[in-house]
Amino acid sequence: MSALAQQAPVDAAEIFANAVRAIFSRWTLLRLAVDQGWADGDEAQKADALVTRVLEMVAPSVRRVPDESEIADVLHDAIESTFNAQAEDGSVEEISRTILRLRAECSAGNVANALVYVQQQASSLDASQGREDEAGEAEEVVVAPAPAPLPIIDEDGFETVQRRRNPRRACAP
């Protein structure tokens, strides 16, 4: 028997679900919300519930795949209502796009990109298991938040106010 025939079959749905979990575990806003206690208790459980909700929306077994804006709406609503924050950095839309792209790839049997996300999560977890200094004591690893974007100043010296694009509030025809 060849080595290829001896390998277990690839479970694309499981790999996809693990990739989605990896994406959420690396989302800076969600990590800060959990680490800083922005949900008034049970932050980790609330973050897990959000991941589960999104996974249920995009599971391979669902009849109708949601579009990017539907996933983005769920993420915006959860961040605002559960964690008392706003995602104005475009991360929600990027996560929504990435999840749908990975879903399509995994549904077609191409799990290579999904595995990259899973492996990146595994390597980041290995690296953050705690470092020890020379005395053998655990060293705390501090993650700094991303800097705020620089303001846009027009030729008259006034700062341009940038509005957040919120597709949920758009009027339907």
TrEMBL record:
Keyword annotations: rRNA processing
UniProt keyword annotation of rRNA processing present: yes
One annotated GO biological process: rRNA processing
InterPro entries recorded: Pre-rRNA_process_TSR2
Name of this chain's protein: Pre-rRNA-processing protein TSR2 homolog
Family note: Belongs to the TSR2 family.
Signal peptide positions on this chain: none
Compositionally biased spans, kind Basic residues: 163-173
Chain positions covered by the region annotation Disordered: 127-173
Pfam families: WGG (PF10273)
